[in-house]
Amino acid sequence: MSKTYTKSFKEDAVCYVQEHSEESVAECARYLGINENTLHTWLKKARQGEEFRGQGNYSSDLAKENAQLRRELKDARDALEILKKTLKIMSE
Fold first, then answer.
1. pLDDT tens-place string over residues 59-86
2. Would you tell me the crossing angle of helices 7-19 and 36-47 to the nearest 10 degrees?
């Protein structure tokens, strides 16, 4: 499972690299505890003026909430199916 980072963390990481220009991106990534390629991606987005997204890369809070509700609904449906199967087995 991949890690997710907040919008604030991504912005802070880019600022850190810019403020520590004497260090390589690889050194900055090690210090921040993130993958070097991930940091390069964030730097590229910052140079292109793209806005960072928050955890899970959802386009909005509404999309994030929608995904969370879908997961919860799926979990509830799965639990219901298990209960139905259990009741069926117990009634036989």
1. 677 877 887 888 899 889 989 999 998 9
2. 90
**Within its chain, how far is the Cα of 80 from the centroid?**
29
As a whole number of angstroms, the distance between CA 86 and CA 80 comes to 10
- Average pLDDT in the 47-66 region? 74
C-alpha 72/C-alpha 64 separation (Å) is: 12
| 45 phi and psi angles, rounded to 5 deg | -60, -40
Give residue 1's pLDDT: 47
Name the DSSP class of 31.
Answer: H
Q: How far apart are CA 67 and CA 70, in angstroms?
A: 5
Provide the whole-model pTM. Answer: 0.56
24: left (phi over 0), alpha (psi -120 to 50) or beta: beta
